[in-house]
């Protein structure tokens, strides 16, 4: 998906585009959420999460970014933002389970309580899912359950839908099938192509992901019996 580095409008309200549940009062977490992040691309959503934390919206510590591609630009953002990062190259692992075991070990070493997949382009296995039950969430560029899997933007254009968007959902073994936490919808314009539509979806991803992480965090902390302040 084409990347956009503009994360300056996380909370900007746009009349033609909307988020459900609507962004309202942000929950407060004491201590802050301890988040691990997985990315395969440019890392613009990593930066959106970082901006939400530094602006005081999301009470979270971004403990570790893991990338699976040596050329992934997300690690450059992480270095600039002083977020710890680690390369775990999927090509050096013979199975998906081996890769996920390495991910779990790295996140546990970083004392991560929950994991956000922010543009991770690999299918995960029960090894990772079971290590963070109910605490592994994913960002997907469609209004699930529509257009699961690869090239969701192209799928939407081919189908001729008039509204699409992005979703943050809990991860389970079936790809893009876990319960939805929050979604952002946008209209599809008559002259859209994959690039223009992807850029507008990504603009909403930057707003949606921090908010959905906070919503999920309320559940994580209730289950963990840690303090959450409304």
How would you describe this structure to a colleague?
This protein has 230 residues and is α/β, with parallel strands linked by helices. It has one domain (18-22, 30-222): Formyl transferase, N-terminal domain (Rossmann fold). 34% of the residues lie in helices and 23% in strands. The chain contains 6 helices and 10 strands, in the order βββαβαβαβαβαββαβ. It has helices at residues 44-54, 74-81, 96-109, 126-131, 152-159, 194-224, and strands spanning 18-20, 28-30, 33-39, 60-67, 85-87, 114-117, 136-140, 163-170, 180-187, 227-229. The strands form 2 sheets. It has an 8-stranded mixed β-sheet with strand order 1-9-8-7-6-3-4-5, sandwiched between helices. Strands 2-10 form a two-stranded antiparallel sheet. α1 (44-54) packs parallel to α2 and α1 packs across α6 (194-224). The chain is globular, with a radius of gyration of 17 Å. The protein starts with 17 loop residues before the first strand and ends with a strand. The model is unreliable at 1-11 and 225-230 (pLDDT under 50).
Helix-residue proportion: 25-40%
The CATH architecture designation is: 3-Layer(aba) Sandwich
Low-confidence stretches: 1-11, 225-230
State the CATH class: Alpha Beta
CATH fold name: Rossmann fold
The number of distinct helices, counting runs of at least 4 residues, comes to 6
The end-to-end distance, rounded to whole angstroms, is: 36 Å
The secondary-structure class comes to alpha/beta
CATH superfamily: Formyl transferase, N-terminal domain
How many domain units?
1
Order of helices and strands: EEEHEHEHEHEHEEHE
- Describe the sheet with the most strands: 8 strands, mixed
The amount of beta strand, in percent, is 15-25%
**Main β-sheet, spatial strand arrangement:** 1-9-8-7-6-3-4-5
